[in-house]
Amino acid sequence: QVQLVESGGGLVQPGGSLRLSCAASGFTFSNYIMSWYRQAPGNEREFVARITNSGGYTNYADSVKGRFTISRDNARNTVYLQMNNLRPEDTAVYYCYAPRVLGVDYWGQGTQVTVSS
Fold first, then answer.
1. Band of the pLDDT at 85, cuts 50, 70, 90?
2. Rg of the chain over CA atoms, in angstroms?
3. Can you name the residues that pair with 19 across neighbouring β-strands?
4. Which of 61, 113, 115, 108 is nearest to 92 (CA)?
5. 53 by DSSP, 3-state: which?
6. What is the pLDDT of residues 27-84, one digit of tens each?
7. For residue 82, which of 101, 104, 61, 66 has the smallest C-alpha distance?
8. How far apart are CA 10 and CA 73, in angstroms?
9. Is 58 exposed, middle or buried (0-12, 13-18, 19+ CB in 10 A)?
10. Is the distance from CB of 4 to CB of 98 less than 8 angstroms?
11. Contact between residue 44 and residue 61 where contact means Cβ atoms under 8 Å apart
12. 25 pairs with which residues across the strands?
């Protein structure tokens, strides 16, 4: 079965960095676009970043552009989110998302990122 397992979240001070990982299994990872979303308390889940199956094209939410970088390693079935210059407003649960895998959308369980001094 399809599984997406995020890791790498935690508590970091403003201006700090974290790298999130999402390990995928149960499908041919290299065939699919992968994305990261986030959800802060009281807010709707929002798009953060997306990467094409080959990694050749990425796009980002305006709020993270220039600070976050999405990448993938198809040999390891893993997608990453490098987050630099973190701000308190980046505090959220971050989710890995695999859309339309054999017609079904899949989400990971989420990893908490807290930016606070």
1. very high
2. 13
3. 82
4. 113
5. coil
6. 999 999 999 999 999 999 999 999 999 999 999 999 999 999 999 999 999 999 999 9
7. 66
8. 22
9. middle
10. yes
11. no
12. 3
